[in-house]
Every structure is written in C-alpha cells, then in structure tokens.
Amino acid sequence: MDTLRTYLAREIYGATLFVFAAFLALFAFFDLINELGDLGTGNYRLRHALAVVALTIPGHVYELFPVVVLIGTLYALSHLAANSEYTVMRGSGLSPWRAAMMLLRIGVVFIVGTLVFGEFITPLAERTARQIKLSATSSLGAQEFRTGLWVKDDRRFVNIREVLPDTSLSDVRVFEFDDQYRLISIGFAKSAQYAGNNIWHLRDVAQTRFSLSGSSVQRMAEMDWTSVLTPDMLSVLFVLPERMSAWDLYQCSRHLSDNRQ
C-alpha cells in the first residue's frame, strides 16, 4: 500500500504542478501586458515590471489552488483509469475506502500549501510588489514612525496617525510651507474619507495660518482637501495590505471592538 500511495501521490503532484505551470504562465503573461502600459511613468522600467509580475505569482498560486488541484487530480486519476492502472490497483487489494484515505493524505499537502501561501507568502509578496511600483512611479517620500505615517506631498508634509481598514484616515495633520520652506499653515482633521479624484473629505478641521502680522485659527466642520495621496498609495505606505491575513483581520476586529467600547 505504501508503494501504491507513493505512486499515486507522484502522479497527482506531477499533474498538479504541470497545470500550475500552464495557468501561472498565462496569468503572468497577461500581468506583464498590463504592466507594460505603465512603462515610462516616473522611473518605472522593464525590470520593475518584471519584478512586480514575479511578486504577483504567489497571489495567483493562492487563488488558483482549489481549481488547479481539482484539475490536476482529475487528470491524474483519468490517466490511471485510461491505462488500466487503477484496475490493477483494485486487483492488488486497493479498496475504494483505502483509495479515498490515500487521496485525503495527499490532499493534506495541498491544504498546508494553501495556508502557507495565503497567510505568509502572498501578503508579503503583494506588499513588496506595490512598494516597488509606487517607489518607481511616484515622487512621494514617506516614512512610518511611532507618531504615524509621514508623507512629503509637494511643499506639504502630511502626518497620518492611522489608516483604518475601510481606507479612511484618523488624526490627519498637514504642514504647508512656501517656496522658501517657511511654515505658512498647520491643519488638523479628526478624520478623512476619500471622495475620489484625489479629493479627501475632512471632518472636524482646525487650521492655523501664519503670516507676518501674526497667526489666525479657523475651525470648520467639514473641508475638502486635494492631494496626490490615494487609498492605493496609503495601503502600500501604511501596514494595510489588500489581502489581509487571518492575524491581520483578528487585529483589526480587536481594534474596531475597542473603538466601539
């Protein structure tokens, strides 16, 4: 039975890898075509596009795992049946129950592979790919500190305390400078929601302006703010990947629960 299980596992794994290679090559080709449209944007070059495509492969592996495993297993079993190998196995004492148990043990490897790709490899690879593309196509400078995310947007420095799972912002500070890099205003907003077209809708705004004659404070319930920042950029700069792992979702649920309390 060990010999039959080893042979069956080799056939299924081989067929699954073959189907994986075919699907991933097709998806990578279409991803590369999509990335070629961004060539020339900023410093985005072919090497960046190839790196981004390579880093998106783990995501496709995770998405295709159920379908590819099904196709690979059916292909391997049909091949065995077509060559009468399964008939020989049955004649050697392999009962349907034992065959099902063999397939179950083989399937555990695919379950572990799906878990590893979904929880560890894919989130890290996608975040790295988006960081590479953003750094090559955008002139934004950003760094994350204990006080939140700091972003340089033209002559403004933006401090974002927190990016929530729905891409809204919490505790936003905007420091604006003139051509001589003199501070001309400081704006604070309790929250911000993206409205599209590079416009953020700020709430509970307090803006302090500085001039030669002194300073003035203006408070507004709502205000629109135009910035090159978008939720897609922030999801790369801030620790908020598009495909969140189970641990990330658990942390977010705890955070939302604490806020409600």
Plain-language structure description:
By secondary structure, the chain is α+β, with helices and mostly antiparallel strands. The chain folds into 2 domains: 2-137, no CATH class; 141-228, SH3 type barrels, CATH 2.30.30. It has 6 helices and 7 strands, in the order H-H-H-H-E-E-E-E-E-E-E-H-H. It has a 7-stranded antiparallel sheet with strand order 1-2-3-4-5-6-7. The relative contact order is 0.10.
The percent range for helix content is 40-55%
Q: Report the span from N to C terminus.
A: 58 Å
Could you give the count of β-strands? 7
Instruction: Give the overall pLDDT as a whole number.
Output: 84
Briefly note the structural class of the backbone: alpha+beta
Order of helices and strands: HHHHEEEEEEEHH
Strand order of the largest sheet: 1-2-3-4-5-6-7
**What is the domain tally?**
2
Q: What characterizes the major β-sheet?
A: 7 strands, antiparallel
Unreliable sequence segments: 239-261
- Which strand-content bin applies to the residues? 25-35%
Q: What overall form do the CA principal axes indicate?
A: elongated
Helical element count? 6
